[in-house]
Amino acid sequence: MVGGDFGSRSGIVDRPSPVSRFTDGDGPVVLGSSPAVVRTVNTERIFEEFPAPSYRGAQESALRDIRDAFEAGNDVVLVRAPTGSGKSLLARAIAGCAQTIEEADPSEPSGAYYTTPQVSQLDDVAADDLLSDLNVIRGKSNYNCILPHERDTPVNQAPCVRERGYDCSVKHRCPYFSDRAIASNREIAAMTLAYFMQTAGSEVFRTRDVVVVDEAHGLAEWAEMYATIRLGPRSVPIWEDLRVPDVDGVDRAARYAENLSQTCTRRKDELLSQESLTPADVRERDRLQELIGELEWFVSDYRDPESPTTWLIDQEPPADTDQPSGGNGSDGEDAELGGPMTIKPMNPERYLRHTVWDRGNKFALLSATILNKDAFCRQVGLNPENVALVDVEHTFPVENRPLYDVTQGKMTYDQRDDTLPEIARTIVRIMQEHPDEKGLVHAHSYAIQERLADLLRDFGVGGRIRTHTRDGRDADLEEWKASDDPDVFLSVKMEEALDLKGDLCRFQVLCKAPFLNTGDSRVAHRLEEGQWAWYYRTALRTIIQGCGRVVRAPDDYGATYLADSSLLDLFDRARTDMPDWFEAQVDRMDAPSLPSFDPQAAVAGTGGANRSSSGRSSAGRSPSTSASGSRTGDRSQSGSESRSSSDRNRSSTRESSRSSPLADVWDTDG
Predict the structure, then answer these.
(1) DSSP symbol at 238
(2) Can you point out the beta strands (E) in 384-516?
(3) 281, 535, 561, 657: which is deepest, by most CB within 10 A?
């Protein structure tokens, strides 16, 4: 296995230590290259390790293909399994193939890690009786101290971290240290990807035989996010005491980061010299330690000529000119002042080596949307020759997961004001079509969510509409799910890790093609290099994830309505990267004839003519559709007019976007 001299881990916060030099230069990771590492993963027991009493859909054949892929000598197996196919059960079976501590020699890794970037996915695993032997560990802030007068204090602010030399009499019963001890000593430890990455180099969570990453499609983006360094008043505790220079390039940013690291170290040492700290002091100390690690990582990586990482610097103008005249963390007193900055890595292969690839012998990466194997490997720094792709068949009938074209125009920033009112009217008509069923609207941004909510209230259907805030999104979501009312939930960034099985949701609306923000420097940099295939593929991935929210089992059903005409152009551009099962949905897409606009019917339960008593046609399709996806009977006049307008918009969109790729995606509001 590729190794590196990372030094020893020190400090309070588990954080990847700075690196010096990798032995294999800037090429892709080649797992299994060290003759000292013996591969003894036992894939022959993959079937007996499957935790469910019986197989569903294509699970048995998927396990057979995964076994064969590992036995063919691949170190990494990508498992492309459609939403609802039981990826967590497949993951458990793979993890169970890791050699046990009894089977391994003392020098060999044993056991397995299960990790996922989604907190909600980890919650689902923890609550699943079939996965009870996945021992979950979370970060300290998720646990409360059990001392009598500290029961509302998170463990990361408890007396054991506030007072020097504190001897806790109940540490053996501390919920955090108890869960950590169990997870570190059992065969399968489960944690979020953030915790997994933060514990790289830890003596507690060492290299294991098998690492399973669920929902792995965004691994490169998650690594970029974790490795991003934000320097500003919210992230730097001593910000008000700093003199921040105007940074005009990465080289100057590295010099400033080095000086700032020294300044943070001095302040941290002052805190460590105290006998007792307040909770606020503890938060400052821990953040300083974390920040020091981030800055040292950046400086080391940037100055390593063999590192493949490209670094970008974004800086805001200074809020005022009253910054102190001292030289703390600056390039000198005469330097021109600057404001908060963000230091961003692109394709942080080196970071992933330390935090992921050096943590195991064999890897299984599962997702419904690893759309292009070679492109994915390039992004995460793997050699495609050592990676196999296993495609799991989709066993949900395509007629149970229809796509409907109700496009009303483009949702690009300059056309949104004209398109949104038409989409709002369309949502009312969709609500009429589903008067007694719950629905989800993917609003894409809070600005769109707020405008849609206002329009729908103006139309008189606000009583059936729910929204959520940034801080209360989880509570608002759970309240909507628990309700029996046929309310429509306007959501933001809920295309992933959301299980709306059965009557929890029967229809959803995609309001906007989820293109990445072209105002982001990383996105702009890639587009300047002509990486348009990556750009469209990333948006397609989000759409496929979103379409899977409402159909969770072979006998489940739910309709997805597409309201932004840019979605249709995206399907044309990214068709070569579509999985076959999603391409079948796109090929079957048709335009429904919705009821005429009548807000009163949308809230009074009087719409949806020709509906069966269950709200679903006998063939399992969305209500009032024929086998081809078209509504039975004559179209209403308003439906025909809407369709004609949409057809014209679709035609003009495709024509203009082909002449200028950016014309169809230019959107800088996120």
Answers:
(1) T
(2) 387-391, 403-405, 439-442, 465-466, 488-491, 507-510
(3) 561
Amino acid at 13: V
Residue 591: Cβ within 10 Å count: 19
pLDDT tier at 658 (50, 70, 90 boundaries)? very low
- Which region holds residue 629: left if phi is over 0, alpha if psi is between -120 and 50, else beta? left
Q: Are 419 and 408 in contact (CB under 8 A)?
A: yes
At 574, the amino acid letter reads: A
507 and 437 Cβ atoms separated by less than 8 Å:
yes
**pLDDT at 456 exceeding the cut of 70:** yes
> Pseudo-torsion of CA 622, 624, 629, 630, nearest 10°?
-150
Distance of CA 127 to the CA centre of its chain: 20
- Does the domain at residues 398-603 carry the CATH identifier 1.10.150.170? no
SS3 403: strand
What pLDDT, on the 0 to 100 scale, is given for residue 106?
Answer: 87
Nearest alpha carbon to residue 629 among 579, 659, 589: 589
CA atoms within 13 A on the CB side of 64: 6
Among 319, 341, 350, CA closest to 257? 341
- Structural domain spans, the chain: 43-133+187-224+349-391, 233-319, 398-603
- Distances from the Cα of 256 to the Cαs of 328, 337, 440, 489, in angstroms? 10, 12, 47, 46
Q: What is the pTM of this model?
A: 0.82
CA dist 584 → 138, 182, 369 (Å) = 40, 45, 15
Residue 367's contacts (CB-CB under 8 Å, 6 or more residues apart) are: 78, 79, 80, 81, 87, 214, 215, 216, 217
Q: What are the beta bridge partners of residue 77? A: 364, 388
Tens-digit pLDDT profile for residues 324-347: 544 454 455 556 789 999 999 998
Whether CATH 3.30.470.20 fits 43-133+187-224+349-391: no
Q: Do domains 43-133+187-224+349-391 and 398-603 have the same CATH topology?
A: yes
In angstroms, the first-to-last Cα distance of the chain is 40
Report d(CA 403, CA 582) in Å as an integer.
Answer: 10
